[in-house]
Amino acid sequence: AQSVTQLGSHVSVSEGALVLLRCNYSSSVPPYLFWYVQYPNQGLQLLLKYTTGATLVKGINGFEAEFKKSETSFHLTKPSAHMSDAAEYFCAASTGNQFYFGTGTSLTVIP
Amino acid sequence: DAGVIQSPRHEVTEMGQEVTLRCKPISGHNSLFWYRQTMMRGLELLIYFNNNVPIDDSGMPEDRFSAKMPNASFSTLKIQPSEPRDSAVYFCASKGPNRASGANVLTFGAGSRLTVL
Questions:
Q1: Residue A52 to residue A42: CA distance in whole angstroms
Q2: Which of A95, B13, B91, B99 has the lowest tally of Cβ within 10 angstroms?
């Protein structure tokens, strides 16, 4: 079975600093990979996805993620954090109709 | 597109009462998922449907929970009788058919926050 691990349940960065949220998946077959963001009292919103092709994927709000098969990783980055980036972030993997979510990383942005 | 629509957004009820949560998936999507989110357990898949047929209900906690999808545009999640430990946010999500535009992406509704007193 697939599993997704997010390292660090809480991450704090200063405004303007680099954001790095880590995600690793376990699978011998690379699945489709996703990052979702959840703002307070809202549903999960797709940030970006990797299916096939280019391994560096750009998403909304300046986020990007790189699929590294050799490391089974799909880390999320943003060069400069903004206060509005404070939210919960979920990494997910899917194979067909099976979706596997990480436990989430809460991002705090310090002014 | 209005996205995935869930109702009610908030529900407060007393223990023992029946609760019905509703979901309208995105038009053209043929897979529908019900999730539950709590602080303690995170995001849990309860059940998913493909073409209105329940495929995997192994996440349904117990017989008090039931879900139906009578047609492609409507699904319900029912809890009867409800208990305080059912308090959570319940999300519905839908997905388009494989090879279609937007396939392999789950689109979530805004959620239904349930409080059982």
A1: 29
A2: B99
Nearest to B104 among A90, A94, A103 (CB): A94
Please, is B98 exposed, middle or buried when counting C-beta atoms within 10 Å of its C-beta (0-12, 13-18, 19+)? exposed
Q: Write out pLDDT tens, residues A48-100.
A: 999 888 889 999 999 999 999 889 999 999 999 999 999 999 999 988 778 88
Q: Do A34 and B105 touch (CB under 8 A)?
A: yes
Q: Is B12 on the interface with A (CB under 8 A)?
A: no
> Are A43 and B91 a contacting pair at CB < 8 A?
yes
Residue in A55, A4, A50 with CA at minimum distance from that of residue A26 = A4
Distance CA A6, CA A21 (A): 8
Q: Does B50 touch chain A (CB under 8 A)?
A: yes
Q: What is the pLDDT of residues B36-88, one digit of tens each?
A: 999 888 899 999 999 999 999 999 988 999 999 999 999 999 999 999 999 99
